[in-house]
Amino acid sequence: MPLTPEQAKTICAMPKAELHVHIEGTLEPELIFRLAERNGVKLPYANVEALRDAYAFTDLQSFLDIYYAGASVLLTEDDFCDMTRAYLARAAQDNIRHTEIFFDPQTHTARGVSIETVINGIERALAEAETQHGITSRLILCFLRHLSEEDALQTLETALPYFNSHGHRLIGVGLDSSEQGHPPTKFTRVFERCRALGLRIVAHAGEEGPPAYIYEALDTLQVERVDHGVRAIEDEALLERLAREKIALTVCPLSNVRLKVFEDMGQHTLHQLLKRGLAVTINSDDPAYFGGYLNENFLATFHALDMTMDDAYTLAQNSFEASFIIDSEKQALISELAQFRAANAT
Ligand code: ADE
Ligand code: ZN
């Protein structure tokens, strides 16, 4: 059954968490051009329209090439703050109550921008959003998997003063960028060190890569959540394990369609994964590039797949349960969702 306008409104108003968003992927073309001008950075695109026209992706790599070019305009603390502030204002409109944000320090340090500039700029906007919008947040540092493990180890060392330190929201590490040919086991030692430091652990796996990469993320990196993980559908034993061990998948439907993981939204396996008892969540990944923020991901999914309002509440509940906040904060958000549900029961 297609969603009624009333149901769509309820899904949009529902309190929810976002657990898979790359802050550099929230950089809208207009802001890219504004920052390029502010910083005197020359872009290989004539204007906003020409840049947007280039967003015709054929796979993950074709997207990453443009995404890294877009991030080249970020130089100062104010740039990182402005980008993060814009995302959080948009997140507030989608009734996101808590967000766990990825950032890619190596993309910036390779251009001579210090990790201090990156983290301080993002943190300033996160602190501001907590008072201005009531949105809580955490930060997750992602290692770029197309670079070496040595580079990741060095990056980790430079970030150590910021992890779990007073006033900072940086709590964990992830693994992103080009998946094929860069298996999780390439980063065994750096994740071992992260675990010894008590950091929270996630990794992109099974987006374009095979189910074997999801096994490696679980067994070798010992992830607590799998980012994407949609190719788990190809492996029955893996599905059973993910359900049994309650390992959440942070699924990004519009991203998967734009990067041709699925031909169209009607082919997306999110509903099947949910019916198999997996802790599925819906997320936006790189909303400025994939045609929608969190609510647009919810609506596109629900319009294409035969899902119910019970499913919507399950997805929102999963997003809070799979978050890395302390239990009391988690319970408060889950209660808020229960109250919303009671108030909106038909
Ligand atoms: N970096 C930003 N978005 C990504 C994605 N969808 N997969 C891998 N790396 C990414
Ligand atoms: Zn991602």
Q: What would you note in describing this structure?
A:
The chain has helices at 5-13, 29-39, 48-53, 60-71, 77-93, 105-109, 115-132, 149-159, 188-196, 211-221, 236-244, 253-258, 270-275, 287-290, 294-304, 309-321, 327-343; strands at residues 16-22, 96-103, 136-144, 170-176, 200-205, 225-228, 248-251, 280-282. Helix 5 packs parallel to helix 7 (115-132). The mean pLDDT is 97. The chain has an 8-stranded parallel β-sheet, with helices on both faces. 51% of the residues lie in helices and 14% in strands. The protein has one domain (5-344): Metal-dependent hydrolases (TIM Barrel, Alpha-Beta Barrel), CATH 3.20.20. By secondary structure, the protein is of the alpha/beta class. The chain is built from 17 helices and 8 strands. The structure holds adenine and zinc ion. Adenine is lined by residues 22, 25, 60, 67, 176-177, 204, 207, 255, 285-286.
Features:
single chain, 346 residues, alpha/beta, TIM Barrel, 8-stranded parallel β-sheet, 51% helix, 14% strand, globular, binds adenine, binds zinc ion
Low-confidence stretches: none
Number of helices: 17
- Would you give the CATH topology? TIM Barrel
The residue fraction in helices comes out at 40-55%
Number of strands: 8
> How big a fraction of the residues is strand?
5-15%
Number of domains: 1
Mean pLDDT: 97
Q: Give, in order, the helices and strands.
A: HEHHHHEHHEHEHEHEHEHHEHHHH
Strand ordering within the main sheet: 1-2-3-4-5-6-7-8
Q: How far apart, in Å, are the first and last alpha carbons? A: 17 Å
The secondary structure category is alpha/beta
The CATH class designation is: Alpha Beta
CATH architecture heading? Alpha-Beta Barrel
Q: What small ligands are held by the chains?
A: adenine, zinc ion
Q: For this structure, what is the CATH homologous superfamily? A: Metal-dependent hydrolases
